[in-house]
Specification:
This protein is mainly alpha-helical and about 270 residues long. It has one domain: Collagenase (Catalytic Domain). About 65% of the residues lie in helices and about 5% in strands. It has a 3-stranded mixed beta sheet with strand order 3-5-4, with helices on both faces. Strand 1 and strand 2 form a beta hairpin. The longest helix is centred in the C-terminal third of the chain and has 28 residues.
């Protein structure tokens, strides 16, 4: 009996194993888009109702324009690489929130939030694209689903029930507040360093594909480092790689990111 259970578990995990496109990192995810996306969209809608949308018309328009360009590039990549069903499931949306918190995040299915507090760190349109690419990469690589798998993988029944309620039940609220922290001031998933490094790399590829200057991804973290040296680092950085590590990693990855972006653009053009 024990052997049967073990074999069943191995088979289940094997079926749940997949590879992140572009980086080719192996991942295990038991949470399907059909389960998570309705809840994600409901949580995002609820967040927007409970928080103040920025009145800065110019910056809001810039955030939305950058988001559309990057998400369009990601969509083209997915459709070119046989991911049409997945591409169809995304509901891209980009909003700027009137809050001084230095943060941005993206929920499963392409629901993005920028806070006004991160705009000085972005400094320019390419800086916004660097942060946008990073956040979009989290959704593209399904980092949130991986975190849910890690946190609730041993409670499959409860997980399915909680996700299936689309944010209406107490169980669902606990699930999303625990894993995503959308109800908190920071409102950002505490991704692992592996996820953060991967999102940095994918984000750089995406911003190049969309026509932005990838050098600015490095400068964003230089400015973040300068801000952190002047005061206590933002809370959301506590689970992330250090600024210095990110700067070094992004500089080292730049040639590879350019090569990936060029290859992908050729594949898209050939379709």
């Amino acid at each position: 009996m024990k052997r049967l259970v073990t074999l069943s578990l191995v088979a289940f995990l094997f079926a749940a194993c997949s590879t992140v496109p572009i980086t080719n990192r192996n991942r295990i995810n038991i949470v399907s888009d059909e389960e998570i996306l309705p809840a994600s969209f409901a949580q995002y809608e609820g967040f927007l109702k409970e928080n103040t949308i920025s009145s800065n018309v110019e910056k809001t328009a810039e955030i939305k324009a950058v988001g559309r360009r990057i998400s369009r590039s990601v969509d083209q990549f997915m459709r070119t690489n046989g991911m049409t069903k997945e591409a169809d499931s995304y509901r891209w949306e980009f909003n700027l929130i009137a809050d001084d918190v230095v943060n941005a995040w993206c929920m499963p299915g392409g629901k993005v939030v920028f806070y006004e507090g991160i705009l000085p760190i972005c400094a320019n349109t390419d800086g916004i694209a660097a942060v946008m690419g990073h956040e979009v990469a989290h959704a593209f690589a399904k980092h949130g689903q991986e975190r849910m798998t890690s946190a609730y993988g041993q409670q499959l029944g409860g997980l399915a029930v909680a996700i299936g309620t689309s944010g209406e039940s107490e169980e669902s609220q606990i699930l999303w507040n625990t894993v995503y922290g959308v109800g908190s001031q920071v409102g950002m998933l505490a991704y692992s360093r592996t996820h953060e490094n991967e999102a940095d790399k994918l984000g750089m590829v995406f911003m190049i594909m969309a026509g932005y200057n990838p050098e600015e991804a490095v400068q964003v973290w230089v400015r973040m480092s300068e801000r952190s040296n002047a005061s206590a680092p933002p809370e959301f950085l506590s689970t992330h790689p250090s600024n210095e590590t990110r700067i070094a990693n992004l500089r080292a990855y730049l040639p590879e990111a350019k090569a990936h972006a060029e290859r992908i653009k050729k594949e898209v053009s050939a379709q």
